[in-house]
Design brief:
The complex is a heterodimer of chains A (225) and B (185).
Chain A lengths: L1 H11 L2 H27 L16 E7 L9 E2 L4 E10 L9 E8 L13 E9 L3 E2 L4 E2 L3 E9 L10 E3 L12 E11 L3 E3 L12 E11 L9
Antiparallel strand pairs in A: 1-3, 3-10, 4-9, 4-12, 5-8, 5-10, 6-7
Chain B lengths: L1 H31 L3 E4 L2 E6 L4 E4 L2 E4 L4 E8 L8 E8 L6 E9 L14 E2 L10 E7 L8 E11 L6 E10 L9 E3 L1
Antiparallel strand pairs in B: 3-5, 4-11, 5-10, 6-9, 6-11, 7-8, 7-10
Classes of the chains: A alpha+beta (225), B alpha+beta (185).
C-alpha cells in the first residue's frame, strides 16, 4: 500500500520537481555503475630499490706528539707553539677539495679580538706529505702552505672563516690523511713603563682557543640507470 | 560585489602563502643538500708580561753623596735589556754638578758592588746637564728579582735648588725580552 502512495504523491508533483527527481536518480545509477567498472579494472605493479646513505666524518688526531694541547709557559711576543695533527675523513663519502677554519677564544680578550691593533695571537698552517718530525718540527717530505700567518682576530667567528689553501679532497675509501702543522704565535710590540703595561695590552691574559675545521662532501652525483 | 571581494582576498592570501612556503623551503633545501664535517680541537694559552719598576723613583741631593734605588722585575717573561729614562734637574745658573750612575746585581755595600764599582750607565759616562736622557743597560733584574742602582754626585752646587735624578725603567717587547721560544708538542 505504501509504494502506491508514493507513486500517487509523485504523480501529483509539479513537472520541475519530477525533472529533479529523475536527474538525481540517473546520477546515482551512473555513479554506482562507474564504481563497479573501476573496481573491475584496477591493477598494481610493484618494484623495489635499495639505497644506503653514506657517512661524512672529519676527525682530528695527533700526527706526532700530543696534538692540540695547552701551552704551559707564559707566551711572549715572537714565541711559537707548534702542534702536529692529522685531519682525516673517516666517513664513507669523499670530501670536496678545500676546507675552512675559524678560531674562537674563550674568554674573549685582546689575544683574539683585535682590541690592540696589530697585536694578539696568530696562526699558520702547513701541510706535510708525510708525518712530521716532532723533535725538529721539520717535514721529511714536501711541505704545502695552507694558511699564511693570520691574526686570529680576523677569523674569530663562524662568519669570518679562513679558506685553507691547497687542501686536496680527502677520500675516505683510501684513508687519505692531511698531516698538518698548526703554528700558534703571539705578536706584541708593547713597552711597559715603571712596571705598568699600556692601558690596552695583550699582557697577562689567558684564553682557550677552539679551532673549527670544516669540510664539505664531494659534489653530489646524479646517476641514471 | 561582496562575493567578488572575497574571491580577490582569497587569491591574494593564496599567493602570499605560496611565496612564504617557497622562501622557507629554499634555504632548507640548499643547506640540506651538502653534508659538512667539522673537527673542533682546543688549545689553552696564557700570555706573559714584562716590565720593571724602580723605588724610589727619584733621588735628591743637597750635598755630594751616593744614593741607591732598587729596580725590580715585575713581569713573567725574562728580559735581556732595560732602558732608563733619566731626568736630571738642578739650578744651572748657579750649580755645576756631575752625576754618575752604576748598577749592581747585589745590594751596594759601603759604596761598593761586590767590592767593585758596578757597571756604569752609560759606560764611562756622566750627567751634568739638565734634561732627560735615555740609557740602556744589559744588567737586568731576573724574574722576581732586583738589581740595584747607585748614583753619585760630585761637583759644586749651592742647595738653593735641590739636585734630583729621576728614573723611569722601560721594557719594550719583543726586542728587550728573552729570545723567542719555539715549542713543538
Amino acid at each position: 500500500m505504501r509504494p502506491l502512495r508514493i507513486v500517487a504523491r509523485v504523480a501529483s508533483w509539479s513537472t520541475p520537481a519530477r525533472v529533479i527527481l529523475a536527474g538525481a536518480f540517473a546520477t546515482s545509477i551512473a555513479l554506482v555503475t562507474t564504481a563497479g567498472v573501476y573496481a573491475g579494472l584496477s591493477a598494481t605493479a610493484t618494484g623495489s630499490s635499495s639505497v644506503t646513505t653514506g657517512t661524512f666524518n672529519l676527525t682530528l688526531s695527533a700526527d706526532v706528539g700530543a696534538g692540540f694541547s695547552n701551552f704551559t709557559g707564559k707566551m711572549a711576543p715572537g714565541d711559537t707553539d707548534n702542534v702536529f695533527v692529522n685531519l682525516n675523513n673517516t666517513g664513507t663519502l669523499a670530501s670536496a677539495a678545500g676546507m675552512t677554519l675559524w678560531v674562537a677564544g674563550s674568554p674573549v680578550n685582546a689575544l683574539t679580538n683585535g682590541t690592540v691593533t696589530g697585536e694578539g695571537l696568530s696562526v699558520s698552517l702547513t701541510q706535510c706529505s708525510v708525518a712530521w718530525t716532532l723533535a725538529s718540527g721539520t717535514c721529511g717530505g714536501t711541505t704545502t702552505p695552507i694558511l699564511a700567518t693570520t691574526q686570529i682576530s680576523g677569523i674569530n667567528s663562524a662568519s669570518t672563516p679562513a679558506t685553507l689553501l691547497n687542501i686536496p679532497s680527502l677520500a675516505a675509501s683510501t684513508g687519505q690523511v692531511a698531516h698538518v702543522e698548526v703554528s700558534l704565535g703571539l705578536t706584541g710590540t708593547e713597552t711597559s713603563n715603571n712596571g705598568t703595561p699600556p692601558a690596552q695590552t695583550i699582557q697577562g691574559l689567558s684564553t682557550t682557543l677552539t679551532y673549527t675545521f670544516t669540510e664539505q662532501q664531494r659534489t653530489p652525483v646524479v646517476t641514471n640507470q | 560585489m561582496n562575493v567578488s571581494r572575497r574571491r580577490t582576498a582569497s587569491r591574494v592570501a593564496a599567493v602570499v602563502a605560496a611565496l612564504l612556503a617557497a622562501l622557507l623551503v629554499a634555504p632548507a633545501a640548499a643547506e640540506g643538500g651538502v653534508l659538512k664535517g667539522t673537527a673542533k680541537p682546543t688549545e689553552s694559552v696564557t700570555s706573559g708580561s714584562w716590565g720593571a719598576s724602580v723605588s724610589p723613583t727619584s733621588l735628591t741631593w743637597t750635598a755630594n753623596s751616593s744614593q741607591t734605588a732598587t729596580v725590580t722585575n715585575t713581569g713573567t717573561v725574562a728580559m735581556v735589556q732595560l732602558t732608563y729614562q733619566i731626568t736630571v734637574t738642578f739650578d744651572a745658573t748657579k750649580d755645576t754638578p756631575v752625576l754618575t750612575l752604576a748598577v749592581c746585581t747585589s745590594p751596594w755595600s759601603g759604596g761598593k758592588c761586590n767590592g767593585g764599582a758596578g757597571t756604569a750607565i752609560p759606560a764611562n759616562g756622566s750627567y751634568d746637564v739638565n734634561g732627560t736622557t735615555t740609557e740602556t743597560s744589559s744588567v737586568v733584574p731576573p724574574l722576581s728579582g732586583s738589581v740595584y742602582l747607585q748614583a753619585t754626585s760630585s761637583g759644586s752646587f749651592h742647595q738653593l735648588k735641590p739636585l734630583t735624578m729621576a728614573f723611569v725603567p722601560e721594557v719594550a717587547a719583543p726586542g728587550q725580552l728573552r729570545a723567542a721560544l719555539k715549542t713543538n708538542q
